[in-house]
UniProtKB/TrEMBL annotation:
Gene name for this UniProt entry: ybjG
InterPro entries the record matches: PAP2/HPO (IPR000326), PAP2/HPO_sf (IPR036938), UPP_Pase (IPR033879)
Record field: transmembrane: 26-48, 60-82, 105-123, 130-148, 154-175
E.C. number: 3.6.1.27
Ranges where the Phosphatidic acid phosphatase type 2/haloperoxidase domain occurs: 61-169
GO molecular function, one term: undecaprenyl-diphosphatase activity
The organism of origin for this protein: Dryocola boscaweniae
Reaction catalyzed: di-trans,octa-cis-undecaprenyl diphosphate + H2O = di-trans,octa-cis-undecaprenyl phosphate + phosphate + H(+)
GO CC terms: plasma membrane
SMART domains, per the entry: acidPPc (SM00014)
Protein known as: undecaprenyl-diphosphate phosphatase
């Protein structure tokens, strides 16, 4: 039943040779490049911000990084426990994005971007979480549209991200302050020159 639903939804979303070329090119850009917002926002929130908010920002960055590390690890475990071929490997639909024929469930891109969006919703602002969740859905759509993932691969990434944020919060509750202190010390050492010049926050 679930497999049939998965295939039906995939065929509804998947592009075909008759799909507009501009839409396929846009989907390729979304599928390959928009994920770069993850390291970009993490770097911005760690290095810059108002002095009274920088500690809270860095705590959020650490929890987000923990959640992503946990989610990628869980995704690897789930993928090995429940292997699933990609659509183009099964000969279903059309593929418009080169990809290795490895297991598709859950989606690595979906796992990372949904974890990132949920982290912002839980630990930053609701509006930023909503904006990033919308972006995550667009990325998820693009990878299904281009034929490298099934819809349920993305749902799996969302569920892994949700679990990972909960586990990251548990880790933070126990070791958060120790992790923060060590990383702050490393930050001061690595960015000492930039801190003295006022280019980044202490």
């Amino acid at each position: 039943m679930m497999e049939q639903l998965n295939q039906t939804l995939f065929l509804i979303i998947n592009a075909t040779p008759a799909s507009p070329e501009w839409l396929i090119k846009l989907a390729v850009f979304i599928a390959k490049d928009l994920i770069n917002i993850v390291p970009l926002l993490i770097a911005i929130l760690w290095l810059w911000g108002q002095r009274k908010q920088i500690t809270a920002q860095r705590e959020m960055v650490i929890k987000t990084a923990l959640a992503i590390i946990i989610s990628v690890s869980l995704s690897w475990v789930v993928g090995h426990l429940f292997p699933h071929d990609r659509p183009f490997v099964d000969g279903i639909g059309y593929n418009f994005l080169h990809h290795a024929p490895d297991d598709s469930y859950p989606s690595d891109h979906g796992t990372v971007i949904f974890t990132f969006a949920l982290a912002f919703a839980f630990w930053h602002r609701v509006w930023s979480g909503v904006a990033l969740f919308t972006l995550a859905c667009v990325i998820a759509w693009s990878r299904v549209y281009l034929g490298v993932h099934w819809p349920l691969d993305m749902l799996g990434g969302l569920l892994v991200g949700l679990c990972s944020c909960g586990l990251a919060q548990m880790v933070w509750n126990v070791w958060g302050m120790q992790i923060y202190k060590r990383l702050h010390q490393a930050h001061r050492f690595c960015f000492a020159l930039f801190i003295r010049k006022g280019w980044v926050r202490d």
